[in-house]
Amino acid sequence: MKFFIPRGIAMQRFFCLALFIMSTISHAATAPRERLLFNTAWRFQKDDPADAGNQLDYDKTKKWVNATGNEFSKNAPFARPSGNLGDGVSFTRSNFADAAWRTLNLPHDWGIEGPFKQEYDGSTGKLPWWGIGWYRKHFSVAAGDTGKQIYLQIEGAMSHSLVWLNGQFVGGWPYGYSSFQLDLTPYLKSGDNVIAIRLNNPPDSSRWYPGGGIYRNVWLLKTAPLHIAQWGTYITTPEVTQGAATIDLQTVLENSAAQAANLTLRTQIHAIGASGKLGKALATLETKEINVPAQARQNQVLQIRLANPKLWNLEKPQLYTAVTTIKQNGRIVDSYQTEFGIRTVAFDAAKGFFLNGKLVEIKGVCNHHDLGALGAAFNVRAAERQIEILQEMGCNAIRTSHNPPAPELLDLCDRMGMLVMDESFDCWRSGKTTNDYHRDFDDWHEKDLRALVRRDRNHPSVILWSIGNEVHEQGSPEGHKIAAELSAIVRDEDTTRLTTAGCNDTRAGYNGFEKTIDVFGYNYKPGEYGKFHKAHPNQPIYGSETASCVSSRGEYFFPFSNNKDDGRANFQVSSYDLYAPGWAMPPDWEFKGQDQNPFVGGEFVWTGFDYLGEPTPYNNDVTNLLNFSDAAAKARMEKELADLGKIRVPSRSSYFGILDLCGFKKDRFYIYQARWRPDLPLAHILPHWNWPERVGQVTPIHVYTSGDEAELFLNGKSLGRKTKGALEYRIRWDDVIYEPGEVRVVAYKNGQKWAEETVVTTGPTAQIKLDADHKTIKADGQDLSFVTVSVADAEGLMVPHAKNHLRFEISGPGEIVGVDNGDATGHESFQSNERDAYNGLCLVIVRATNKAGEITLRAASEGLKNGAIVILSK
After folding, report:
1. How many CB atoms are located within 10 Å of the residue 521 CB?
2. How far apart are CA 245 and CA 583, in angstroms?
3. One of 470, 555, 590, 757 is an active-site residue; which one?
4. How far apart are CA 284 and CA 738, in angstroms?
5. Which residue of 109, 267, 343, 527 has the fewest CB atoms within a 10 Å radius of its CB?
6. How far apart are the first and last CA of the chain?
7. Are 590 and 603 in contact (CB under 8 A)?
């Protein structure tokens, strides 16, 4: 049986040909719709004023906040109380003197600024993300904007936001991952205005590092009273052939005026070229006159036929734009652009996932939303870099674990050709931490889920809606009712995609929960694939969360062990890629489960990148997690424990990533690349070959290759040619006796030489090398260059054990905004201009200012030849 989705799914966003950074709203702009970036010149202050008392406590503000977003609820709307919330709180008032507050630009994450503290919870990154923060912004409204509708759009604020304009409460939104819009019009005045926003992150409200602050973009939207509503278009293509596609466009018209309006609606379809520019109109449709009542919304459906469509796919992700205009009395009063792609998707229970009729293996990763040293503050270039690295590995899909993503991430996936599982919640009514989303679930799950689907349902990259991750309710009949309700909400908003959930409870596949979703996802259950398929031959299945292998880049511990629970020492994990928590497994085990069950649609690996928080296996304060291979270190720790009673684990970031927190490749990158890019000639040797203390001792060598055979040489002597056996994914020489020199592997495929790699024993550290991913960046105050700093020997080879202390200086129109080394135990500030190298590497993130010119980054370390690099900002 096949589940078909016979529609080319569209991607919609408010489309801007230019982004204007502004702090003053001017009457100079003449466009009927203006969407203006509203990120600059905010003022910030932590904690409430003394006069707030307890009047802004969660329970007291709840009834006010719940009255926001009623357009996303089909239940009885919440009524707004009378009066004005926060009327006596000084920070809300327009005349409050905030000149002494810190001035900053958004996006902003106050938690990433630290400091790290050992006593903080490692599960949430040992950073101070919790607490209360206030943002205020002064701006001016010109007389020419009188009569317009003006909205504040916030793409993400962590969390429990409350918003005032000129001292009057406007609204709020609890879920820190949701995008939302508030109508400022009733509270605006000509001339000076002040927005005040209060955020409250309760402690114990997250299982990972969530960040704190307005950490995504903020926009100011100006429209006529008659306009297209928020996320007001929905494009589907119910018929797609090589010769033509039928495009259905639903448009929600909103009339905020006091009188009814007559209008005509016109839509033109344009192809988007490689440069992002619109081509000529390929199809046009205009309606007859439409009447929209006063203070009302009305849905209109247009159908356009497009000849010879180019389908969105992973190799050539063609995008189109629908330009929809409203004419009133012969004048254009609104123009709204919706990007979309034309494609078909289907899940087949017997074969897997199909894109445009072609079988496609889902080669996916799960990612949390932080961007390493940048924290939760979203940056387009940082997210783009992550996707570039993932695609180099062969990855074609991202799961937004475990929450709605930044909308710009989906824009990138549309443009770059990545599939997305768009996830909503990590918990439902039963919480996982004391103050997490379960406190808001009853009042907000419908609004949050409808808002997510309406915002994202036009993105061609999105192929699945996930209604939850490892929710506790998997095992209860009451939970099945919740799952059925959530799936029904999704289907009501989007008829073109299927629902799913990440299930870690084996029983969920057989107790009725599986019937509430369309495509079943198992977390860490490759052994269940065959059993589930036998019980449910008509329901598609895939690995919604797989592997959870743990490793530290460049760390290898001896004696070598094949036990997945070993491989730990000194708060690091060996990079032989055989080690995992009790519930998890090395990559090889998941590969075997999929190869034995070819009906499985693919997988989403936990995780693509290391992330802040959840430093399993070192996320507790229990000393029995420590496994010291070094006897002297173990003795020192035992003495310290005897003196102190116990020790708090220092780890502040995860070990799960295929790439570390900097985006540097761990060895695991290559086992996935070998599997996901079988046509790429590849051979990768691990470990490195700098082991002076191991001369004469057994030091196993493993090889990841896309070939089927390999021969290993040590200092020119063959150690044997081996064949990858059935259901084997690495080739091993476990009895190699270490001697310094050269290790070389030659891989073969179908009997022919395929690839080779050489690893050598390096000389001592001698110099610093710098390499930028982008040597030219935009002078826009946002663009980034990621500079890899290597500690190398005299020949330029990175020294794999190097821990030299590095100092950085920058000159020219740029600034250092992040420094890291990928060490999960490091507590140095990400904003510091110095850092120890970790196993030979360090990362410096350089951001351009708004000025053009040459940016010079210099690196120095005692006893080493200094390094420098020039980055051009233009």
Report:
1. 26
2. 46
3. 470
4. 71
5. 527
6. 55
7. yes
CB distance 325 to 334 below 8 Å: yes
- Mean pLDDT by groups of 10 residues along the chain of 874 residues: 35 31 33 93 98 95 96 90 96 97 98 96 97 98 93 98 98 98 97 98 98 98 98 97 95 97 96 87 95 96 96 98 96 97 98 98 98 98 98 98 98 98 98 98 98 98 98 94 98 98 97 97 98 98 98 96 93 97 97 98 98 91 44 56 62 98 98 98 98 98 98 98 97 98 98 98 98 98 98 98 98 98 98 98 98 98 98 98
Identify the sign of the CA torsion 596, 597, 598, 604. negative
Phi, psi of 522 (to 5 degrees): -100, 135
Tokens of 174: 């609890």
Dihedral, CA of residue 377, residue 379, residue 383 and residue 389, to nearest 10: -110
Note the pTM of the prediction, 2 decimals: 0.94
Q: Annotate 93-156 with DSSP letters as a single string.
A: STT---TTSEEE-SS--SGGG----TTS-GGGTTS---EEEEEEEEEEE-GGGTT-EEEEEES-
Tokens of 301: 């459906």
Tokens of 179: 């995008």
Does residue 761 contact residue 741 with C-beta atoms inside 8 Å?
yes
| Amino acid occupying residue 320 | Y
Q: How many CA atoms lie within 13 A of 31 on its CB side?
A: 14
Secondary structure element (H or E) that encloses residue 365, with its range: strand 362-367
Q: Let me know how long the chain is.
A: 874
Sign, Cα dihedral of 55, 58, 60, 64: positive
- C-alpha closest to that of 436 among 201, 212, 616: 201
- Distance, in Å, from the CA atom of 679 to the CA atom of 657, rounded to the nearest integer, reads 24
Kindly state the tokens that stand for 801.
Answer: 């054990």
Do the Cβ atoms of 310 and 274 come closer than 8 Å?
A: no
Amino acid 277: pLDDT: 82
Q: Are strands 742-749 and 709-714 parallel, antiparallel or unpaired?
A: antiparallel
Q: How far apart are CA 341 and CA 269, in angstroms?
A: 11
Tokens of 24: 């003053």
For residue 295 the two structure tokens come to 């203070």
Per-residue pLDDT, 638: 58
From 339, 545, 590, 614, active-site residue: 545
Is there a catalytic annotation at residue 339? Answer: no
